[in-house]
Design goal:
The complex is a heterotrimer.
Chain A (H helix, E strand, L loop, with lengths): L1 E9 L37 H13 L7 E2 L2 E4 L9 E4 L6 E7 L4 E11 L3 E4 L3 E5 L6 E7 L6 H17 L9 E7 L5 E7 L1 H20 L8 E5 L4 E4 L12 E2 L6 E2 L11 H12 L3 H8 L3 H10 L5 H13 L7 H12 L6 H9 L12 H14 L1 H9 L5 H11 L3 H13 L5
Parallel strand pairs in A: 11-12
Antiparallel strand pairs in A: 1-9, 1-10, 2-15, 3-4, 3-14, 5-6, 6-9, 7-8, 10-11, 12-13
Chain B lengths: L16 H15 L2 E4 L8 E5 L26 H8 L3 E6 L18 E2 L2 E5 L5 H9 L4 E6 L5 H7 L2 E4 L19 E6 L2 H11 L21 E5 H4 L4 H16 L3 E5 L7 H16 L19 H8 L5 H13 L6 H21 L3 E6 L8 H6 L2 H6 L5 H6 L3 E9 L2 E8 L5 H14 L9
Parallel strand pairs in B: 2-3, 2-6, 9-10, 9-11
Antiparallel strand pairs in B: 1-3, 4-5, 6-8, 7-8, 7-12, 11-13, 12-13
Helix pairs in contact in B: 3-4, 5-15, 8-10, 8-11
Chain C lengths: L2 H10 L6 H19 L33 H4 L5 E2 L2 E5 L2
Antiparallel strand pairs in C: 1-2
The chains are: A alpha+beta, B alpha/beta, C mainly alpha.
């Protein structure tokens, strides 16, 4: 079984790929100009940031690039294509022969190319409605080899790719739009325009089953284009464009060659790789770490800063709590404070987080308090609260009150107090 | 006709617009060289614009029915720059549909030659040449892909200047072939051309292929004549051309005849590249955008498009079909890619010939033919008319056509070519030429 | 060129020809294509294709929003429905 993907990623530029129109727009046909409308006489001008983002992605996916990249015209007729050709790439694409590393294998990237988005269309009964706001948005198309062989690998790949893109500042909010190519036997079936990981996994699952059934009935699988129906959760034969379209590619003569500079690209951040390294070093679960940092750069920063200086489980716990209270954006110093508090046995609560971040928390210096002083105070507290001792026989947690009160009074670590209390009771102090 | 002793002060005369507009409109009814005249023009020296350059608010249909009613919402960069400098926009001039033609007959409004109204004005910048030939103080912004400035300039007896490819922004030019289209200028005098050139050239933030380059004015002492080119022209033109060469020799130029055996391959290479690019440029005309409502909404999209695209002329359809063919995946290497390499070969050889020489030839193999005769020619016969203008156009070399003789009252032009970016040298040459040669005109509006 | 190939070519470029036009163009096309084939004889073995006749330096546009002054005017004369452009049925 072979699954290959063509992933379309919208680049987070402010303006479109070939013109100054905003990439954000509300009302239909409000962010348009002669260029993205393809008006006679208009000409494209390549967006520098779009080129930079593409090169970052190619670098992060380990791709090889030629010294220069260039564009072509892909000609076909459809209401969503204003010039009746799309400016895209062919032989001089941004990058080729890269890979995404999964746990147990590498999924090879065949090519990455930069191209303009067609317009958005809404089909109606007797006509089509066209919104050119989308026309000209910068898209990166990432094509894989058919190296994925299961639903799990599909999910893992999608998350891994999204994580890499996230760390490049690319496309985390918008959904990935993907064309799936699935062959259970020989024929390759393409499922076009599936959006979002959930739908992708569902579509793949349905299509694999459909093909496997055909095989078991000794029926032929037709190589065709299908579409995924989100409501029925099935793939249907597509009533899309004719196959075998003659695109007649030519070099785009309104653009030129763009150098892929020798400038050293930064080492890409591959969260799964870092999680793997740390988990191996400190003997904890990679999966747990990855869950924390796969789409959270702040969490990764805290993890990398604190690893080795604090017990790994402590770090994991505090990060989990911070995420739960949506407070992950704190400085390394304040994170350290929280780790110290946790070390002292305190529960990190919402309030503690607030105190630490606002600076209201006073640092605990436990060494100032001697064991004798704690014992003294414990005995006083027990004498003052006879009922607690009775309750304690039924409910051990009743003593937490004593621990809390003593710790507060003396500014002592609750762990120390709890220890001393245990010893005091053992020695037979009752009242 | 102007006598030799009259000082050249025409440009300083202030244009009286109501009179000019009246006379122009009347003459236009005979010679059909403007598609639309700007009646609101009231000041500034007048300039006309070939109909494939967008002028905001004026119909720009590049000689085609399929763009009828198209009103651009922006000015082409050269137009914008002229207006900003205070020149007055006079109107749009007629042309072959999208530039597809050598005579001006491939369109609904066919311009007439001012020297003989039964004859063609040339193409594809037909109207621009006529306008320049009939008005005293006029600058025509025109465009050349394979010779569309030189050709009509020669047939109508005016100066036609085509700069190095990429010097003038193509933003707002309704494309024929993007790696070949060049905007240029027609006028009666070289100083008009020079002034206009300096205004409209230069870097533009909207055209990626517009280059900013320091230009030179290197006068070459030698003139190269390529025998294969001149051998194909009519006997009459050949003899007038000999006279021209003798004259230039007297002025101090060394004349050298060279053989360039594969220069005739410039024509097929040019047509392959230009048709391939044109077929993609014309794909956008499908009947429901840009204010062109040709579509029949009862039909589904493919039939809808096909119906709308019936509004192309025959030559346009021919070129779309051929252009689509030569870039088809199975034959692309044989035609499109090979033609691009032939372009390299031609450019290299021409460059080496022009290291210390200009290249000179007659501009056209004949004087302007009768309109009916032009219509009878087959496509290949028509394409062959471009044999002299295609080589510099294919390679993007700057070239200028200037009148040098009259045969039975019909103008004959010669074309001077130089290396990339040596554009000013051509204008210097014409400037010298016009000091001692009288251009003749039938009208002087 | 075979008739079927010619028909396919016409449909690829979404063109329809009248009978007279079709006969004419089909005849021309064959001779023009053989004419095109004569470029074969030029020795280009050591040459790269010239996509442009001169070297064009690359120029990039800064990623800045510069809205067109009058987007509505671009759609004047086009059939629209509630801000959408109306196109043919798919």
């Amino acid at each position: 079984m072979k699954i290959g993907l063509e992933v379309h990623v919208a680049l987070p530029t402010k303006s479109k790929l070939f013109c100054g129109c905003s990439t954000a727009s509300e009302e239909p046909n409000s962010s348009i100009c002669p260029i993205c409308l393809g008006v006679p006489g208009s000409k494209p001008m390549l967006n520098k940031a779009a080129l930079e983002y593409s090169l970052d992605v190619a670098n992060a996916l380990g791709c090889v690039s030629k010294p220069r990249t260039s564009f072509v015209r892909k000609v076909y007729f459809y209401p969503d294509l204003p010039k009746s050709y799309q400016i895209t790439q062919l032989q001089d694409a941004i990058g080729v022969e890269g890979y995404v590393a999964l746990e147990k294998k590498k999924v090879r990237i065949r090519r990455i190319q930069l191209e303009e988005d067609p317009a958005k269309i809404i089909r109606e009964d007797n006509y089509t409605l066209v919104d050119f706001n989308r026309s000209g948005l910068p898209l990166l198309e990432i094509v894989t080899e058919p190296d994925i062989t299961s639903e799990d690998e599909l999910r893992e790949f999608l998350n891994e790719l999204r994580s890499i893109l996230y760390y490049l500042g690319v496309d985390i909010e918008k959904e990935l739009k993907v064309d799936l190519n699935i062959s259970v036997a020989d024929a390759r079936v393409e499922i076009k325009n599936v959006t979002g990981i959930r739908n992708l996994v569902d579509a793949a699952r349905y299509e694999i089953k459909r093909q496997e059934e055909l095989v078991s009935k000794k029926q032929k699988i037709v190589a065709e284009t299908r579409s995924y129906n989100e409501k029925s959760l099935k793939t249907d034969a597509s009533r899309e464009k004719e196959s075998d379209e003659e695109y007649g590619f030519i070099y785009e003569p309104d653009l030129t060659f763009y150098s892929i500079k020798e400038k050293k690209r930064e080492e890409p951040i591959i969260a799964s790789r870092i999680a793997g390294e740390i988990s191996k070093k400190y003997g904890c679960s990679k999966k747990t770490l990855l869950e924390l940092v796969q789409f959270d750069s702040k969490a990764l920063e805290l993890l990398e800063h604190a690893q080795g200086k604090w017990p790994i489980q402590s770090i994991i716990n505090v990060i989990e709590v911070l995420k739960r209270y949506e407070s992950i954006k704190i400085s390394n110093e304040k994170f350290t404070e929280l780790l110290e508090i946790a070390k002292g046995g305190h529960q990190i609560t919402d309030q503690i987080i607030k105190n630490v971040t606002s600076g209201a928390h006073v640092k605990v210096t436990v060494s100032d308090v001697s064991a004798e002083e704690v014992d003294e105070e414990i005995k006083k507290m027990i004498s003052a609260n006879p009922k607690i001792m009775i309750e304690h026989e039924k409910n051990p947690k009743a003593l937490n009150f004593i621990v809390g009160a003593v710790a507060k009074k003396l500014n002592a670590s609750p762990r120390l107090v709890s220890e001393r209390l245990g010893l005091v009771l053992k020695k037979g102090f009752k009242n | 006709m102007r006598s030799a002793s009259e000082p050249k002060k025409q440009r300083k005369e202030k244009v009286v617009y109501p009179k000019l507009l009246r006379e122009l409109t009347k003459l236009n009814e005979e010679l059909h060289f403007f598609t639309v005249i700007n009646d609101n023009i009231s000041e500034g020296a007048p300039f006309s614009v070939k109909d494939n350059l967008c002028v905001k608010g004026f119909e720009s249909r590049a000689g085609s029915k399929i763009l009828k009613g198209y009103l651009p919402q922006f000015n082409a960069t050269p137009v914008e720059r002229m207006i900003a400098k205070g020149f007055g926009f006079l109107g749009k001039t007629t042309m072959d549909e999208f530039g597809f033609g050598s005579f001006g007959v491939n369109t609904d409004i066919v311009a007439r030659n001012p020297f003989d109204e039964k004859c063609v004005a040339g193409g594809s910048s037909s109207g621009a040449a006529v306008a320049t030939a009939v008005m005293k103080n006029h600058i025509a912004i025109a465009e050349s892909t394979g010779g569309s400035i030189s050709n009509p300039a020669s047939f109508c007896g005016v100066v036609g200047f085509t700069p190095t490819y990429g010097l003038i922004s193509r933003y707002g030019l309704i494309d024929y072939a993007n790696s070949l289209d060049k905007i240029g200028i027609m006028a009666r005098e070289s100083n008009q051309i020079r002034e206009t050139f300096d205004i409209i050239k230069g870097k533009d933030g909207y055209d990626s292929t517009c280059v900013d380059k320091k230009l030179t004015a290197l006068k070459k002492k030698k003139i190269v004549v390529i025998d294969q080119l001149t051998n194909g022209v009519s006997e009459e033109i050949k003899s007038t051309f000999q006279v021209l060469l003798a004259r230039l020799e007297n002025q101090g130029y060394a004349i050298e005849h060279v053989s360039f055996d594969f220069i005739d391959k410039a024509i097929p290479a040019y047509y392959i590249i230009s048709m391939a690019e044109a077929s993609t440029n014309l794909a956008k005309y499908d009947g429901y955008k840009y204010g062109m409502q040709y579509g029949d909404f009862t039909k589904k999209y493919n039939e809808f498009f096909t119906n709308a695209r019936e509004n192309f002329g025959t030559e346009a359809k021919r070129r779309i079909v051929l252009g689509t063919f030569v870039r088809g995946a199975s034959v692309k290497d044989k035609y499109y890619t090979k033609a691009l390499k032939v372009r390299t070969a031609l450019t290299n050889k021409l460059s080496s010939l022009m290291k210390d020489a200009f290249i000179l030839s007659p501009t056209m193999p004949i004087t302007a033919p009768k309109i009916e005769e032009a219509r009878k020619l087959s496509p290949l016969q028509t394409y062959a008319m471009d044999s002299l203008t295609i080589p510099p156009n294919l390679s993007g070399f700057p070239h200028v056509s200037f009148p040098y003789a009259y045969i039975k009252g019909m103008p004959v032009g010669a074309q001077l070519i130089t290396s990339h970016f040596n554009d000013y040298a051509l204008l210097d040459f014409v400037s010298e030429w016009e000091k001692s040669f009288e251009y003749q005109f039938k009208h002087n509006l | 060129m075979q008739d079927s190939d010619f028909e396919r070519l016409l449909s690829v470029c979404r063109l329809r020809l009248g009978d007279g036009e079709k006969a004419q163009i089909k005849k021309d096309i064959d001779s023009i294509i053989s004419y095109f084939s004569t470029i074969e004889s030029v020795d280009t073995s050591k040459l790269e294709p010239s996509y442009h006749p001169i070297e064009i330096e690359e120029r990039l546009r800064e990623d800045r929003v510069e809205p067109f002054e009058n987007p509505d005017a671009l759609l004047k004369g086009t059939k629209t429905y509630r801000f959408y452009v109306v196109g043919p049925e798919i």
